[in-house]
Design a protein that fits this description.
There is one protein chain. The longest helix is centred in the middle third of the chain and has 16 residues. This protein has an eight-stranded mixed sheet with strand order 8-9-10-11-12-13-15-14, sandwiched between helices. A four-stranded antiparallel sheet has the order 2-3-1-4, with helices on one face. It has a three-stranded antiparallel sheet with strand order 5-7-6. By secondary structure, the chain is α+β, with helices and mostly antiparallel strands. The radius of gyration is 23 Å and the shape is elongated. Strand 2 and strand 3 form a beta hairpin. The chain has three domains: 87 residues, 2-Layer Sandwich (Alpha-Beta Plaits), CATH 3.30.70; 85 residues, no CATH class; 179 residues, Aminopeptidase. The two termini are 44 Å apart. It is built from twelve helices and 15 strands. It comes from Actinokineospora alba. This is N-acetylglutamate synthase, GNAT family. Keywords: Acyltransferase, Transferase. GO terms for molecular function: acyltransferase activity, transferring groups other than amino-acyl groups. InterPro entries: ACT-like_dom_sf, ACT_dom, Acyl_CoA_acyltransferase, Bact_Acetyltransf, GNAT_dom.
């Protein structure tokens, strides 16, 4: 059992089906009250053939979710899904949808995260053309934004209801009307005043990415690849621009690629690995930080809690860019490398790691 659950109150979101008899819901809440549980919210979601009741309940320390399910079953009900909830997220559906739309309209990079929050989904990803698998279980929701962008939301703890699917479809109409797309380019201003465009990499960027590597110094390439790479083999280009387990983000000034960052899924769903390459003349101009912020939004929407980078002990460039981002950062030595952890989940505290003065001092020498 999670030790956190055993030592402090926990808030749960339950979706249940009850017999259509007067007083059934009241008896369930009475049983929960007998366990000193506090019901914080109740909503009714229409579904084919009836309704699903959603209850948000705060439980005392030591209460296991199985005991809540037992109480529901004792009254003839069935638990459709249960997941942890945060009290700060418990707002009415209309408010949540409006906030999500506002966040996406302010920053298209936040679209996927806004959809995840609105649906209570485990993850939301941008799907490639023809990469949307069929799903009959109701745990998959697909949102089309215009003709070029498709978002796929997954939720394991409970199937999506028709009401939720209709809500997210309307959300998509709002964003499409505003010409918003999750994968659309975004503009930032570098420290030197130049305008930089951030956008996903495509196979058509192969020559520009090869030119980026040709302009980078041997030291910059070694810091990125940890090997004596001097020229980029052409066979690497496709994998760099379309990694099978992740995404590539490019930074452009005009038509010239001046930076490249990658976000790669690992075997740990909570983490994704991040890497960064910025042309020598554009370093210390905020380009790396802008790419880290953008990938942080993408990682959060896909359900990751932190991004991890592995740096050489004498290399300070990535750590410096990460500390300038909007996310908390922790650093520690591991296997003769610097492990830089960037926390992207706002509800999660940074790694329980103390970046000692000695460690930080060593990286800055």
């Amino acid at each position: 059992m999670d030790t956190t659950t055993a030592t402090q109150p926990t808030t749960w979101r339950l979706r249940i089906r009850l017999d259509d008899r007067p007083g059934t819901l009241a008896r369930v809440t009475t049983r929960l009250a007998a366990r000193d549980c506090n019901v914080l919210g109740l909503s009714v979601l229409p579904v084919p053939g009836g309704v699903i009741d959603e209850i948000v309940v705060s439980t005392p320390a030591g209460t296991e979710p199985a005991s809540l399910i037992d109480d529901i079953r004792a009254e003839g009900g069935r638990c459709v899904g249960i997941t942890r909830a945060q009290v700060r997220q418990m707002v009415d559906r209309t408010t949540a949808a409006l906030r999500a739309a506002g966040a996406a309209l302010r920053d298209q990079a936040a679209t996927a995260e806004a959809v995840r929050t609105m649906l209570g989904a485990d993850s939301v990803r941008v799907a490639e053309a023809g990469d949307v698998e069929s799903d009959q279980s109701g745990h998959l929701a697909v949102l089309h934004l215009g003709t070029d962008t498709t978002l796929v939301a997954r939720r394991g703890w409970a199937p999506f209801t028709e009401v939720e699917l209709a809500r997210v479809a309307a959300f998509g109409e709002v964003l499409t009307a505003g010409v918003i797309a999750a994968g659309a380019p975004s503009a930032v201003i570098a420290n030197n005043g130049a305008g930089i465009v951030l956008r996903p990499g495509t196979p058509a960027d192969g020559d520009a990415v090869a030119d980026l590597h040709a302009r980078c110094s041997a030291q910059t390439l070694f810091a990125r690849y940890h090997s004596g790479l001097r020229t980029l083999p052409r066979r690497w280009l496709h994998r760099l621009l379309q990694p099978p387990r992740g995404k590539t983000l490019l930074a452009l000034c005009g038509t010239e690629v001046i930076g490249m960052a990658q976000l790669i899924r690992t075997n740990d769903p909570a983490e994704a690995e991040i890497s960064l390459l910025v042309e020598d003349g554009w370093q210390r101009q905020g380009v790396g930080t802008a790419m880290i912020d953008r990938l942080g939004a993408i990682a959060r929407a896909e359900g990751h809690r932190r991004m991890i980078a592995w740096c050489l002990s004498q290399e300070t460039g990535f750590e410096r860019a990460a500390r300038s981002s909007v996310h908390p950062v922790t650093v520690r030595y591991e296997d003769s490398m610097l492990r830089v952890a960037i926390t992207v989940d706002p509800s999660l505290q940074p790694d329980d790691v103390t970046a000692t003065t000695a460690t930080e001092g060593a990286t800055r020498k």
